[in-house]
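User:
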Amino acid sequence: MGTETMWAARVHAFGDPGQLVHEEVPRPAPGPGEVLVRVHSAGVNPPDWYARRGFVNIPEAMRPTWPLPFTPGSDISGIIADVGAGVTEWRAGDEVFGLVNFPGRASGYAEFTTSPAAHLARKPATLGHVEAAAVPMAGLTAYQFLVEHLRLGSGGTVLVNGAGGGVGHFAVQLAKAAGAAQVIGVASGRHEAFLKNLGADRFVDYTRAAVEDVVRDVDVLIDTVGGPDGHRLLPVLRRGGRLAPVYLGEYHRERAAELGITVEGWQVRSDGEHLAELARLIDAGRLRVGIDSVFPLSAAAQAHTRAEQGHLQGKIVLRVVT
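Assistant: Predicted structure:
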């Protein structure tokens, strides 16, 4: 492979995981305000496989159009290889991690990628690149929901549905860090020890009991599952409670309003300053990273197959540098 090329996992046709092809492609160069990152690891996130499928899960009026071929991936951890014009906060050799160009297109499943300088933060000193690449999208989603939008403070009860997954396991920890009096994690039974070890005060195994039958008077509900049955969660919330869906779902908003429940969702976005705060919590031992599985870049298709099986415990990561 020449110095002007690199290996990447690219999508040439929309469809199943087999559409991810490991191939040699041109190496990018940073533009003004950007840096070039030598990617050591890349996180795997739902928008990556949504894009691979052609966003068929999103209503047509809201569906992005991505020209083929493209390289998916927005979560990266690596080392800065070069800086573009006007960049003063980073230099070659700095270890960084970030959610790149989200919402929008990025190219993280590759040996090199470019990123706006402001989308990166210094990699947590206590993490390797695999663990750091698992943080950005999931960690920022939980952080921006709980801290920026919901402004969670001390006291109250927070329930996290789908607590074992990427966003869920960060939301459990960040709710505790914010001072929630009680955090309830809902997941299948195999996640119980994992979530209690992360600080969940109560665990509900949805395979043994419907959460709406056994939980009441929740102040804030983070739903990382969504789907057509999301509205079944309404009974767990008190009047005046807030339901924050991470994914699209049917929440019977008129019925929720009658019950005094607010349903609000937000889009995660790239933010280097927020990511730096997550890094501070990680290095202080207040936020831990769950890894479901690790695949080499050449096995990106297998990583997507694992992702679509669901029931993840933490995040899936591609190891780019072996």
